[in-house]
Amino acid sequence: MYQPLIVPPGQAAYDAGGRNLGFKDQRLALEWVNENIGYFGGDSTKVTLFGTSAGGISAGVQTFYKKGEIGGLFHGIILESGSPGTVRALKPDHPIREAGFRFLANATGCLSGPSVCDLRTLQPDGPIPAAGFQLIANATGCLGDPSVFECIQKAPADVLSQANVDVLALEPTIFGPSYSPEDDFIAEPVRDILYSGKFAKVPFINGAQLDEGPILIDMLATNFSSEQDIVDWLTSGFGMSNLTAINELLKFYSTSPAAGSPYGTGDETFDKGPQFKRIASALGDYLFQAPRRDHLTYATKFGVKSWSYILKESSLGFPPKYGIAHGGDIPFVFQTLDINHPNAPQAAIELMKTIGSYWVNFAYSLDPNAGGDNLPLWPQYGEEKVALQLLGSNVTTIEDTDRTEATDFILKNDGSF
Length: 417
Fold this sequence. Notes:
The protein is α/β, with parallel strands linked by helices. It folds into 3 domains: about 10-90 and about 180-200, no CATH class; about 95-170, no CATH class; about 210-410, Alpha/Beta hydrolase fold, catalytic domain (Rossmann fold). It has helices spanning about 10-15, 20-35, 55-60, 95-105, 130-135, 150-155, 155-170, 190-195, 215-220, 225-235, 245-250, 275-300, 330-335, 335-340, 345-365, 405-410; strands at about 50, 75-80, 205-210, 305, 310, 385-390, 395-400. Strand 6 and strand 7 form a beta hairpin. It is globular and about 60 Å long. It comes from Rhizoctonia solani.
């Protein structure tokens, strides 16, 4: 998830030049790498960005710099469980972003102007939850300051860190990128950037875990016993406000636990309520699978070489309720599975080596098949929408068509929720 230091929310932050600061920091780091990598034996023409979750999102957003004029700072990207559209970019003065700014201002003692009680009006759906209001009311107080943003910049790191924890418990989407015509990275909504081809046409891999949603739902909420619990959480805790769109979305997801995520676990609900797996499936598609497919589809339209995967190997160290979990790919990519889990199945160890070979091949040659490693052929995503199944010794191609009606609906109604 994004934090306020990376993407400061609100119009005041924007007016003070604080928009999308994290992306600027990343760009500066890439410029340093470009200038200095040769001293470490590296090749400045073969820099590949990769990241998981927010790191994957960031890697994708870096291709948007100045409408794709990236200056040769990298030649390819790998996105793992995160796409440019995973966290929706909003206008700086969007009510959710303004709510985030006021929360930070109050928590750091920097708020001037309206009473803290006025924060209730900043939610697009009306009052924020009582628990969240208590967090705000019990913050450090409304100490007036002529420059609220500058005051927040000077706040102690531990105060900002705690404010981040508190506000994300209230509203997990409150921090995120903003778009504006003047921004070097996100000058317009992400989907408009993709549709118009205003991004660097560098080859990429964009993949996901089978079960992206459960761990996030479990971190942010406790129990889902009814459909109304889902609707209430999406409106009061996830920033959605269009009840019609929410209800239409839920029609694509069965009420049967056997159809939900973690997939393939039957009627087990893991003591999280009969609707837990339903909302986990929907959120996994909304945040990860739909944006991934969108990124790949429009890259294909503009002739960009791209590959996709779905990792289906068990996430060792995660409880069963998380399934093939968000973040479960990290030990496979970093080649630490056998170190962290000495008793890992041999098939999982072999999969780790396979993934390592694909990633290195891509980083060097911009083609995961280029190393001559006797790996299964990994076709480009293309119009056929082909992905690679990463599952133990069964690494094979699959059609990326699961729940396409749902993900198509999500993409068609992007911005309507």
